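BUG: 3D viewer hangs when loading the predicted structure for this chain

Environment: internal workstation, default settings.
Expected: structure renders.
Actual: progress bar stalls at 90%.

Input used:
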Amino acid sequence: MKYYAKFINMSRIGKLPIELPKGTQAKLDGDFIVVKGPKGELKEKIHPNVKIEIEDQLIKVFVPNETIGREKALWGLFRNLINNLVIGVNNGFEKKLEINGVGYRAATAGNKLTLNLGFSHPIIFDLPEGISTQVAGNIITLSGINKQLLGEVAAGIRKLRKPEPYKGKGIKYIDEIIRRKAGKTATK
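Structure tokens produced before the viewer hung:
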């Protein structure tokens, strides 16, 4: 019983090492980990309870006490955050949004996204540095190397006109399913 209890407390995600692809470098810089790759450079602040070891082409994440719930959660969290840095500087990330509605459309110019969403005026959304966009028909494709920033930008654009449940008009993620409602019915 004690043998089983020892391994049930380990973080299944945290104990996995992160493999660095060729052309990718990682180093510790004080409280930060810096990852450089073909697409750019990203850094993440590390929690004081999390220890990182970089050897050869592997990054290993450790915590002092694997049985404490908060430290176990930090272990898995920081392992995934560092893994996202590695994926981002090598492949990048992409999010797609779909615009539905009569007269709803988007256009891009430089780092500005102009959206016509049924209001009396067009909405100009400034994209932060590191996020690029392409518009093809009613699909907006956002791409960048920082997964967290990309998610925040996509959520900010979606928030401008959330999809409504009756006709499905608005901005939604491409893989999002909108639960539709039946409208009011006239009495006979």
